[in-house]
């Protein structure tokens, strides 16, 4: 009986009202689906970020067993991470600050320690492609997001000139 009543109400609506209801329903489905999809992608990215941190720490331990130890203190690494966040914060990246940090790396263990110390940090991004507002990235993802291909090439050249085989 309720189905018949709903059908009677629907049948009695003018065409414009049926169209409005249909478009509104599709809009609700679209925005709900987009929100769900965005959450799924964020969760996948978060898992990848955690793996990057875990892998960096594991590889750093492996290098230490081979006698390759980091040369930077925890406080130096924290200061470097803060300098990178400040370079990325807001509109316009200060690439030179990132290069200065990378020039202080002495070996691959230093780079891995920097990545694990950086962890997942938040900064305000001003990027048309990825949106505005706060983003939380690991160091590799932040660098990939903020530097263009020529800047990335320069950064990797700095590391390779020091005999460091890590590539961002």
Give an overview of the whole structure:
By secondary structure, the chain is mainly alpha-helical. Helices cover 70% and strands 8% of the residues. The chain contains seven helices and two strands. It has helices spanning 2-12, 15-65, 74-88, 95-103, 108-118, 139-146, 149-161; strands spanning 121-127, 131-137.
Topology as a string of helices (H) and strands (E): HHHHHEEHH
Largest beta sheet, briefly?
2 strands, antiparallel
Adjacency order of strands in the biggest sheet = 1-2
Tally of helical segments: 7
Q: Roughly what percent helix?
A: over 70%
Separation of the first and last Cα atoms: 65 Å
Query: What is the rounded Rg?
Result: 25 Å
Using the alpha-carbon principal axes, give the shape: elongated
Secondary-structure content class: mainly alpha
Number of strands: 2
Number of domains: 1
Low-confidence stretches: none
Strand content bin: 5-15%
Global mean pLDDT:
88
Strand-helix topology:
Elements: H1 2-12, H2 15-65, H3 74-88, H4 95-103, H5 108-118, E1 121-127, E2 131-137, H6 139-146, H7 149-161
Antiparallel strand pairs: 1-2
Entry keywords:
168 residues, mainly alpha, two-stranded antiparallel ribbon, 7 helices, 70% helix
Q: What is this structure, in a nutshell?
A:
This protein has 168 residues and is mainly alpha-helical.
